[in-house]
Design a protein that fits this description.
The protein has 215 residues and is mainly beta. The chain has four helices and 14 strands. The strands form three sheets. The chain has a six-stranded antiparallel barrel with strand order 2-3-6-5-4-7. The chain has a six-stranded mixed beta sheet with strand order 12-11-10-9-14-13, with no helix packed on it. Strands 1-8 form a two-stranded parallel sheet. A hairpin with a 2-residue loop joins strand 5 and strand 6. It is elongated, with a radius of gyration of 29 Å.
Length: 215
């Protein structure tokens, strides 16, 4: 199973870390797995900068993208020297994303593609995905079971538990471990109310309560 990607009308693809050299280059912190496709010459990015920045409300256009000593570096239109580069340092770059476009990676989905899907278990619909939580260790599908609007089930978004995601059919298939969707029954082999008490002692106790004796 891949990952769920936060739903946005725009995608954050990088941050300008610091000026590099004297010709306007800027080192990048990448938030995309496809930098060579995202940072092609002519690509235009919206900028997240403070209101006090001279770049507030403007866009940045890629002039050149290259790798220098294994570090991604970008040159932008209108940024021709180090002084100009310093004015845009720490800006976060965003790119428009079609709301229905699928991620390029295999087995990866945006949140908005997953939220609202039926949850199917053993051929029956048992709930609906209401949101996706992104944790450091893994993503979780938050499922609301049918008929219980006040309950939420946290389903690890891993292939062993969510083996199938069918966006076209509007459902995910789950094979949860016992106890994830329902409470585990009490141990049927354990005498109710007696714990680890031997059966012989339990019989004597019952007889004492009834005022009778046992052989």
């Amino acid at each position: 199973m891949g990952t769920a990607k936060p739903a946005r009308t725009q995608l954050r693809v990088g941050r300008l870390v610091k000026a590099h050299g004297l010709k306007g280059a800027l080192k990048l912190e990448l938030y995309t797995d496809e930098p060579d496709q995202r940072f092609v010459p002519g690509a235009v990015f919206a900028l997240q900068v403070p209101e006090s920045s001279p770049w507030h409300g403007k866009t940045a256009t890629v002039r050149e993208f290259r790798w220098m000593n294994s570090h991604p570096v970008v040159f932008l239109e209108g940024v021709d020297d180090r002084t100009a580069a310093e004015t845009i340092v720490r800006a976060i770059l965003w790119i428009d994303q079609d709301a229905v476009e699928s991620p390029a990676e295999d087995d990866a989905w945006y949140d908005h593609q997953l939220v609202g899907l039926d949850v199917v278990r053993d051929g029956e619909t048992v709930g609906r995905v209401v949101r996706v939580d992104h944790l450091p260790a893994q993503d979780l599908l938050i499922v609301r079971p049918l008929g219980d609007e006040d309950r939420e089930i946290l389903v690890p978004f891993v292939k062993a538990i969510v083996p199938e995601v069918d966006i076209a059919a509007r459902h995910v298939v789950v094979t949860p471990p016992e106890g994830l969707f329902e409470e585990l029954p009490a141990d049927a082999d354990e005498p109710e109310g007696r714990g680890d008490e031997p059966a012989e002692h339990a019989e004597q106790a019952d007889a004492a309560e009834d005022g009778t004796e046992t052989d």
